[in-house]
Amino acid sequence: MFPELKNKIVLVIGSSQGIGKAVVETFLNSLSVVIAADITYDCDKLQTIDKRYFQIHLDISRETEVSELSQQLIENKMVPDILVDVAGISTMDFLVNSQTSDFEKTFQVNTRGTYFAMKYFTKAMIDHNKKGRIIVIASQAGKNGYRGMSAYVASKHAVLGLIKTAAIETAPNQILINAVCPGIIETEMKQRERVEGGALRGMSAEAVRQEDISQVPLKRTGTPQDVANVVLFLASPLSSYMTGQAINVTGGMTMH
């Protein structure tokens, strides 16, 4: 789709399902070289899937693992031109009943993990004089509040603060840092949230799904590909005058 992305090295963190899987497939279709990192993979060294596709295990919440992956890519002359951080988790409970451990776990992955990825891979890009792109999958929950999701909402608000600050700091290096804020996207995580959130509210998962649709002006929920398309735009030359932005992909549900 964008010839400029051919042979660009793209690291996708959180790549095994949902939005991350769609992002991987989209960049492979663009003839990029894709490194897919995910906690579910069992290979500690880069595993070649084919000549343009590699997989590796990564727990983004562990700083040592992020640092070691950065060093491994440097040693293999595979410093990313583009980083896409999709990794994220959610927990469901009302604030007064919530567990502190769930709050901390959510921040460890969503916020600390994003911080680690941005810290180490931005440094690698700068050290190797790469005018790169960093794209973080945040959420419309980084702009709004949602019942039963205090930890997730707070973590995504923090992520947007990180990308704004980092975008200012890396602008002199021509490293553009932006976030994508998906709305209601049909993923495995969303399906689980409907079950757990519905139980909190005395609703079936199907009733929650219908409520979801009713809140979207376009009258449909999103697909992982809807999000991957915007990621591709942010990685492309078409977004060369954009940094520090948080772009909604919500079907009109969030407009700010």
From TrEMBL:
Pfam families the UniProt entry points to: adh_short_C2
UniProt key word Oxidoreductase: yes
SUPFAM superfamilies reported for this sequence: NAD(P)-binding Rossmann-fold domains
Signal peptide, first to last residue: none
Presence of the UniProt keyword Transcription in the record: no
A GO MF label: oxidoreductase activity
Residue ranges of coiled coil: none
Stored InterPro entries: NAD(P)-bd_dom_sf, Sc_DH/Rdtase_CS, SDR_fam
Keyword annotations of the record: Oxidoreductase
A GO biological-process term: bile acid metabolic process
Similarity comment text for this entry: Belongs to the short-chain dehydrogenases/reductases (SDR) family.
Protein name, entry field: Oxidoreductase
